[in-house]
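Usage

Read records sequentially. Each one opens with the input sequence:
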Amino acid sequence: MPKYLKISFPQKCIGCELCVAETQRQLKKVGLEGALIRVFKQSNESFGIGTDRNFEEELTFTIQIDPTVNKLNIQKIRDICPTGVFTIQEEEEDGGLVS
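and closes with the structure output:
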């Protein structure tokens, strides 16, 4: 059964891009050109309540995976993530996915 890399816990992403570095290492490429996994930073800005109006910025990250990443060693990509964002799923014979 084929296995697939899935983003199961995107809220845990800290933006370290180790997953990107591992995919590029497996592809033997330097830089982000043709990267199969991309991590994008999103900033939610808000001001504190009160007269001092402290500036607070909440960072969140969005992860995008190219489906061709499943041709690589996805076990290493999953294991390199320090916060456990990814899981590996197997496809059953009827086409459904199983964790």
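Summary fields computed downstream for this record:
- Strands lie at 3-7, 37-47, 55-65, 86-91, 97-98.
- Residues 3-92 form one domain.
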